[in-house]
Write a structure and sequence with these properties.
This protein has 20 helices and three strands. By secondary structure, it is mainly α. Strands 1-2-3 form a three-stranded mixed β-sheet, covered by helices on one side.
Length: about 525
């Protein structure tokens, strides 16, 4: 017998909505008030969700347990398998010295002007790190470089965090988009395209904000071409990649195109005055940092690994590739939806040759080129597990929770309650993503918890089905600068270690400004360009 979901177990829309919010409230309290680790909070949240699903929503226990297992498998294979090998590549570049060569080459390309340094390092280089690794690493790497350029510690962390806004939805080689596709049942290609359209508009703003933060109004007045080229350089690479090649490489290609565009601009145009931090004029011949390493005229050792990664992943995952289509098994558990009274299923289509496997192959080719020693490889895996074990646990745990949330009908009851807001939910949609990432620290986790719910509300209020899930991801993207888990990684290389609370408070105001801008973008697509968000 197929389980039929219950829509209103409390016999009151308001009461059922409050009950459906209980797992979310538990996560909020555990993470924000009791400050326990994310993986521990998610275990408790999962137990609460299972208990509510079985006792209040009357879901069969065996089917509920199966739904949890299917969700956990999705989380591991769709997220962990990608993130793990992405971090392995990053750590391999670090231990072999290739990453330092690349970083030093970037420093050499910069002038003494703080605006140029900020857009090359924080905006373009930060997007590259986000696309490859994510999880706060762009802050941790970029902030010390900015501090070396003369930016004070707190402002440097804020610049690194806000520069990271636009790229986050495609971070860790598209893990958040793939996670959103897994819980909504929507195509990853379609979600990549819809998110890419919103990101293309969102990305117009950060370079201007960054110029203002490091050099004030004076810096914008004399350096506006930098912001213009920085934003459009990223968009020119990011947008077509997100529309036609899927979610894996928009950040990587967007950042590389942005690099090229900014460096080309500097060949033909330079600001009339050279400004330091705060917009203070400085001699134009001052070197970016006093201890700049010897020039790397041909940093092939550093650039080729990125080129290998781009070529392999594009060839492997592009629309011309069929590697990801083979699914040797696809476990599933079905229910009758309480909203549409049609069949609803939690399914995991196990595809061995997805993007994570492509990244593994990229790493093997990078190994053949860099030829690290045995002790270096041991350091790579030791560092990766030390850095990632908590995040690797959260992935399967949160996706298992989300699967039960959806299968039992809890998500539909919450969607039914929030749908009574009607059009106003377009305003709330990105705010929920912002709140979720501020607590969980992960865009992927935010999408896992709220993705299906946002999709259901979109159907109930007859909004374009891709819009609300996409706004959830973008809201999470905007909230990353105040996410404790991300901030704890981001401050690891500064004097604010274990004092991320001060950094979060310092970042709060600007995240609210960008959130308001995102809400405006959501309204644009809802009222003016709805067709862009339809399948």
């Amino acid at each position: 017998m197929v389980f039929s979901q219950v829509l209103d177990p409390a016999h009151s829309v308001f009461g059922s909505t409050l009950l459906a919010l209980a797992p979310v409230i538990v996560l909020l309290l555990l993470l924000a008030v009791f400050r326990i680790s994310a993986w521990q909070a998610v275990i408790v949240g999962a137990l609460v969700t299972i208990a509510l699903g079985v006792t209040v929503w009357h879901a069969p226990f065996a089917a509920t347990a199966k739904a949890y297992g299917i969700g956990a498998g999705q989380g591991f294979w769709s997220v962990d398998w990608i993130v793990f090998w992405g971090v392995v590549i990053y750590n391999t570049l670090v231990v072999t010295g290739a990453f330092d060569v690349f970083k030093n080459w970037l420093i050499e390309q910069a002038t003494a002007d703080i605006r140029v340094q900020t857009l090359l390092i924080a905006w373009a280089f930060g997007a590259l790190l986000e696309g490859l690794v994510g999880f706060g690493y762009p802050w941790a790497v970029v902030a010390p470089i900015l501090i070396a350029f003369g930016i004070a510690d707190l402002p440097a962390l804020r610049v690194a965090a806000l520069a990271n806004n636009a790229p986050v939805s495609y971070g860790a080689l598209g893990a958040p988009v793939l996670g959103l596709a897994a819980v909504t049942g929507l195509s990853a290609t379609a979600l990549s395209a819809s998110i890419g359209k919103i990101v293309a508009v969102l990305a117009l703003a950060p370079p201007w904000i960054l110029l203002y933060l490091v050099s004030g109004k004076r810096g914008i007045k004399t350096g506006w071409p930098l912001a213009l080229v920085g934003s459009f350089g990223y968009i020119i690479g990011q947008y077509p990649t997100s529309q036609y090649l899927g979610p894996y490489l928009p950040d990587v290609i967007g950042s590389l195109v942005c690099f090229a565009a900014l460096l080309l601009l500097l060949k033909v145009w330079q600001p009339k005055e050279t400004l330091g931090f705060g917009g203070v004029p400085i001699p134009s011949d001052r070197s970016p940092v006093a201890d700049t390493p010897p020039r790397q005229t041909a940093p092939l050792r550093a650039l080729l690994p990125f080129l290998i990664l781009v070529i392999v992943v594009v060839a492997w995952t592009g629309p011309w590739s069929k590697l990801g289509n083979w699914t040797p098994f696809a476990p599933s558990v079905s229910a009758r939806s309480s909203l549409g009274h049609t069949a609803s299923a939690v399914t995991w289509k196990f595809a061995p040759f997805i993007a994570g496997t492509a990244i593994l192959v990229s790493w093997l080719l990078i190994l053949a080129y860099l030829r690290p020693r045995g002790d270096q490889l041991r350091r790579v895996f030791r560092s990766t597990f030390q850095q990632m074990w908590g995040a690797l646990l959260v992935g399967p745990l949160i996706f298992g929770l989300a699967a039960v949330y959806n299968f039992s009908g809890i998500a539909n009851s919450m969607a039914n309650g929030f749908s009574h807001l009607g059009t106003w939910f377009v305003v709330l949609s990105p705010v929920l993503g912002w709140i979720a990432v501020a607590l969980s620290g992960s865009n992927t986790s935010s999408n896992a918890v709220f993705g299906h719910f946002q999709y259901s509300v979109a159907q109930l209020i007859h909004a374009p089905v891709l819009l609300l899930p996409s706004l959830n991801s973008l809201g999470a993207e905007v909230g990353k600068p105040i996410a404790p888990q991300t901030a704890s990684v981001g401050v690891a290389t500064t004097k604010f270690v274990r004092d991320e609370g001060q950094v979060i408070r310092y970042n709060m105001g600007w995240t609210l400004v960008i959130l308001a801008y995102l809400i405006g973008i959501g309204a644009l697509f809802y009222f003016v360009l709805p067709q862009a968000m339809r399948i």
